[in-house]
What we know:
GO terms for molecular function: nucleic acid binding; RNA-directed RNA polymerase activity; zinc ion binding. Keywords: Metal-binding, Zinc, Zinc-finger. By secondary structure, the protein is mainly β. It has four helices and 20 strands. It folds into two domains: 3-79, 2-Layer Sandwich (Alpha-Beta Plaits), CATH 3.30.70.330; 94-264. The longest helix is centred in the N-terminal third of the chain and has 13 residues, at 54-66. It starts with a strand and ends with a strand.
Amino acid sequence: MAKKISLYGFASHVSARAVKEFLEGHTGEGTVSDVEVGQNKGSRAHAIVEFTTVKAAELIKCLASVRLSYGNSYLKASDAQRRTPHYAKRGIPHYQLGDDLKLNFGCHISKDKFSVLWSQENVSVKLCSDIRKFEFFLSYESVDYKLELSYESIWQIELHRPRGHPAKYLVIQLYGVPMIYENEIHRVREVDFAPSSSIEQSSDICLELPSRAHIPKALKDFFYYKESPVQFTLVPGSVFSCNSDLVHMTHGKKKDKKRKRKRKASINKVNKDAVNCFFCKNKGHMKKACPKYKTWVVKER
């Protein structure tokens, strides 16, 4: 039976991985199932640790009551209290859009097709409506990540409900890229971890939902939202460039979502290596193989 305890006295820069390795040095490999590191007031950090057995947890509590040191500090241990999530404490309405979802990064290439640059499965998605923010939780190459997408980074949201299809697709069209956090060490990651910087080169995010998935009203109220019953298809795509100098760019101020955008986009043409890149300021991105003249990329003859 699993049991959680709280340990206080770690250095402020300690990582969850270091805490896990330290504790398993006393209790045995594989006895720690989860570690959450938090910062206290002052120079010390605490850790909420979940052990796979009560015996392992009690051993650490016993060692701490005598003398369990980490670096130049002695640790204190106690049973972990059930905590209220931070969003509940602040009174923020919180919606779980689903677990084990598939998240696709890429771009629209037509009204009924989405070009996929990179996909990741087993993704959990939350919506905090009062602060108008999406949170995506995923794991890639044994590292846990959290992607935060704020209201200011979203242009519009479109829900595709193809008739007779077992899934529906929530497409989020972007002004800017998500903030990327490494959960384990609680810091912002400045480099896109996806292959070929696929996240930064994507102008849209497509979330695959079960056909019976509930769409919260808050999503429709706070974002420029519309639904489409037409057929929708995901197709393999390719990144614009592996060169970090050509990754996703954002420009301009966010417009009011309540008004429908009728003004045409302002287009800048840039020439690089005999390729005409049409950059659309309204959307804030470059696309490849787009059927519309506003954003396509073509080779000079």
